[in-house]
């Protein structure tokens, strides 16, 4: 992966404030985001621990690359944290960076977190936004989730 090698061109991470705001909103007691086994997005069963585990010695360098705008590095950090059952706020931090920097898979996962862990209408609207971005990027699963959200809205 080019974006994780030193000296490789990197995508620009320009939305740090929005990641921080999203984390504050998601983790605010008034919003009531709670991750449950049913709401927790799961990594496809073909993915294995050995594929996404990041050795502790490699994590700082990968975090630096992700913070500089690498969607791939940020999504890899998210996936490793998901396997380790890390805290929700840590996972949301990295998946948001990945989504903002163009990772279609991260956009889908972020939409899923927002749609399944909160009843706040603002966050559900953001879920729709992220599903649309992922669907526009070719993620058929996100398109299915977007259609379901729209069908549910019509039935109400």
Largest sheet: none
Question: How many β-strand runs?
Answer: 0
Instruction: List the secondary-structure elements in sequence, H or E.
Output: HHHHHHHH
Please, what is the average pLDDT? 77
Q: Give the proportion of residues in helices.
A: 55-70%
Question: Which SSEs are present, and which pair or pack?
Answer:
Blueprint: H1 16-27, H2 49-52, H3 59-67, H4 71-83, H5 88-100, H6 104-117, H7 121-136, H8 140-155
Helix pairs in contact: 1-5, 3-4, 4-5, 5-6, 6-7, 7-8
Textual characterization of the structure:
The protein has 156 residues and is mostly helical. 62% of the residues lie in helices and 0% in strands. The chain contains eight helices and no strands. The chain has helices at residues 16-27, 49-52, 59-67, 71-83, 88-100, 104-117, 121-136, 140-155. It is elongated and about 50 Å long.
